[in-house]
Each structure stands twice: as structure tokens, then as C-alpha cells.
Specification:
3 domains; 5-stranded mixed β-sheet; 5-stranded antiparallel β-sheet; 11 helices
């Protein structure tokens, strides 16, 4: 297990509470335990906001729960789950030193709104902060009656801490297109701030370039399965929905982010998401931010997709977060302050890291040596990108293993192969 100092260092880097960072650290080890469990690793498909954070975009909101779709309904059994989570508890402690006390594991089996069996687990943990008294908890939401339209993909779990396993932590999770469609469906059905935040942020990321027709097809299948209308932008002309999202924006998102972006920026962008989805517009292809006079660049270097403690006088992760959230940064450099739009990090051949940014009020593209930055503060001022935002790359994608996986709930294969009834 890493020591408390590393948690504090990351908390400083992320501008977040150490409690949030400790939970993120523990989530990584719980996911490792699930991935290494012989009965769960190929049966549990990771999804939701924490999947986005841990498997797609590390520079993202910190999430708190673990959501899975299970391919085996029989695993939604209190005794089985208690035993499996107990085994994971033992494995995590032996592998990392993080304590997940068996006696504190809680399992609840219940009927979901669709009338089928689901489960919720709660795992307490004692991590590097070594807190006493009531321990913090991780919640697991487990369902087996969700439709899974596309095959899961195997992705590495981002675990940017010193004790990460030598072999990557790799889990099966929803494909990027399915994750996108699921978030749009969730936003339309339940209208929560985190869903609006997720949908707009997924749309902004250009690295994986999802095909809008594929996302729309998956969305239609999911809405049909849920028996709800396929949403379009007209849904978001609903003032009561807007008022509800505004009211909960800070309380539901503020603690997960280094800085809370303005609601209006996200609300105003949702129309473009649906126009892209339905083929009414194409996303603009922006040029790369490059300073013409900078010819000494190491063209092979790119910033890590993992968040990291950069060991610089001024934390860089908040700058990367600001870029992903289209927020300007007040940068102090050479004794003066200016408002900038951050776009990319580059490294020179002699090892200096440069921040490529635009002066917000003049449009001038500049390069700032990171070691000479005296202060960087995220502002509430938004910007519309003039160049590609390259500070928040996605991690690598891995093809599923060639060995046969069990068929998944709601898939065409599972419907053909199984006449087994769902729990009712």
C-alpha cells in the first residue's frame, strides 16, 4: 500500500480532498480484485461514470460507485456475492495492504423498477489515510437485465499510483459507443447533472471518434428495451428539467471536480450533441496548436493519458482538467498574469515541458515553460476551442480476448442460446 504522503501529493495535484483521492486509489484495487476473480472477471461488465474515469478519460470527474452488468443471473444471490466479495477482500489485502473488512460487507437483493432482481453491495475500506471510527464505503450496483448491444471491450484501468501491479489491471467494460449511448439514454430518462456533464464531455473528446450512426443505433435499441422514446434536442427545451438540473448542479458535482464548470455552458452545448447524433452537423476538425518558432520539439513525446503528480512547482492536472472542461486558466508567468486557453503540452529535445495556450482576450498562441509558471488558477470563464484540445488523451484500447466469453444479457446470442427465465 502506498503511504499517506502519496495521497496528499495527489490531492494537491488534483486540487481535491485527500478522501476523494484515497477512494479513487481503493477503487483501482477493488477493480483489480474483481478482474482477477475466476467467477467474476469474465462475467461482470463495467459501466457508468466510474468506468469513464478509470478506463477512458483519466482527466475526468472523480466518481464514487462501481456499476456492472452481469452476464449470469445466478450470481445475483446474497450468499454467492458475500463469498465472492469476501474473497476479493482477502486478495486485495494480500496484494496491496488495503483493508476491506469482511465483517463490514453488506449485500442487498431487491427488485428493480423493471420487476427483476438486482443487487447492491457496500464495501468498507481502510486505506493509506488510516482513518479510525466509521470507515468510508464503496457502493456496487449490480444488474443482470440491461441490454448490451455491442460486445464488451477489454481496457486497462488507470491506477496512477506507485503500487500499481506489474501487469495492467484490465477489465471488460462497455464499448465507447455503448457508453455514450447509455449516458444519453440516462440523461433523457432521469435527468441528473452528472449525466449532462458526462454526455457533453464524451462528445468533446475527439480521440476515439465514435460513429454517430452507430451511437444512434445503440441508443434506439436501449430506448426500445426500456420502452421510452428516443430523445432529441427538443426534450431539452423543457424548462422544469433545466430548473431541476440547475438546482442540483453544484450539490451533485461540486465535490467530484477541482472546479465546477458553469451549468449554462453544458446546457447550451447539448443541442450540438443531438445535431451531431442525428447527422445534422459534423464535428469541426480543429488544427493542432503549434508555436511556429518552436522547432526544437521532441515529436515522439506526448503527455501521459494517466493523471500523474508532475512534481512541478505548480500542479498541472488542474490545467488539464480546465482544458477538458473548456475553462480558462489565470496564468502567472514572468511576474504578470494573463487569462489563457490551455491546449497541449509538448516537450523539447532538451527536456523542457511547454504549455501551448492562447491568450484568451487577444487570440495570441504562446508557449510557456512549465518550470517557469508561477501560478495557475482555474477560472469560471469558458472558451470555445480554436485548436484541438490535446491535454486529455484517452488510454489505449485492447481487443477482447479470443477465448469464448459467456453470452451477455439482452444480446442476440444470449436470446438464441438460452430459454432460461429471468428472475421475476
Amino acid at each position: 500500500m502506498i503511504d499517506k504522503r502519496e495521497i496528499i501529493e495527489f490531492a494537491h495535484e488534483f486540487s481535491l480532498s485527500p478522501d476523494i483521492v484515497e477512494k479513487d486509489y481503493t477503487l483501482g484495487w477493488v477493480l483489480a480484485g474483481i478482474a482477477n476473480h475466476p467467477a467474476l472477471g469474465s462475467q461482470w461488465v463495467f459501466k457508468g461514470g466510474t468506468c469513464l474515469k478509470k478506463c477512458y478519460f483519466e482527466t475526468y470527474r472523480f466518481s464514487e460507485d462501481l456499476d456492472f452488468t452481469l452476464s449470469d443471473y445466478e450470481q445475483l444471490d446474497k450468499g454467492f456475492l458475500a463469498d465472492a466479495l469476501g474473497e476479493i477482500s482477502d486478495w486485495v489485502y494480500e496484494s496491496s495492504g488495503v483493508e476491506l473488512p469482511r465483517g463490514d460487507i453488506r449485500i442487498e437483493i431487491f427488485r428493480n423498477p423493471r420487476g427483476n432482481i438486482s443487487a447492491q453491495g457496500r464495501i468498507s475500506y481502510r486505506g493509506p489515510l488510516q482513518r479510525r471510527g466509521n470507515l468510508p464505503r464503496i457502493k456496487l450496483d449490480l444488474t443482470a437485465d440491461e441490454i448490451l448491444v455491442m460486445e464488451p471491450v477489454a481496457r486497462d484501468v488507470y491506477h496512477p499510483y506507485a503500487d500499481r501491479p506489474e501487469d495492467p489491471i484490465r477489465v471488460y467494460c462497455y464499448s465507447f459507443e455503448e457508453t455514450f449511448a447509455e449516458k444519453i439514454r440516462a440523461l433523457a430518462e432521469r435527468g441528473r447533472p452528472r449525466d449532462l456533464y458526462d454526455v457533453v464531455n464524451i462528445f468533446r473528446h475527439d480521440e476515439l471518434r465514435p460513429d454517430p450512426a452507430t451511437v444512434l443505433d445503440v441508443l434506439k435499441k436501449k430506448c426500445s428495451f426500456k420502452e421510452i422514446a428516443v430523445p432529441d434536442k427538443e426534450l431539452f427545451e423543457n424548462e422544469p428539467l433545466r430548473d431541476e438540473l440547475v438546482a442540483d448542479w453544484e450539490s451533485m458535482l461540486g465535490h467530484q471536480l477541482p472546479a465546477l464548470p458553469p451549468f449554462e455552458k453544458y446546457w447550451s452545448e447539448i443541442a450540438a450533441v443531438f445535431d451531431w447524433l442525428y447527422g445534422r452537423i459534423e464535428k469541426a476538425v480543429l488544427p493542432e496548436a503549434r508555436v511556429v518558432q518552436e522547432s526544437n520539439l521532441d515529436e515522439t513525446w506526448r503527455p501521459p493519458s494517466m493523471a500523474s503528480a508532475w512534481h512541478t512547482a505548480i500542479p498541472l492536472e488542474p490545467v488539464r482538467f480546465a482544458a477538458a472542461n473548456r475553462l480558462c486558466v489565470e496564468l502567472t508567468y514572468g511576474g504578470t498574469s494573463r487569462i489563457i486557453e490551455p491546449y497541449s503540452l509538448r516537450r523539447t529535445r532538451d527536456g523542457n515541458i511547454l504549455l501551448f495556450a492562447v491568450k484568451h482576450h487577444t487570440g495570441e498562441l504562446r508557449a510557456y515553460r512549465v518550470d517557469r509558471i508561477q501560478n495557475a488558477r482555474i477560472t469560471q470563464e469558458s472558451f470555445n476551442p480554436r485548436y484541438r484540445v490535446e491535454l486529455t488523451p484517452a488510454g489505449p484500447l485492447f481487443a477482447p480476448e479470443t477465448t469464448k466469453r459467456p453470452s451477455l444479457p439482452g444480446s442476440a446470442t444470449s436470446r438464441r442460446r438460452s430459454g432460461r427465465r429471468r428472475h421475476s
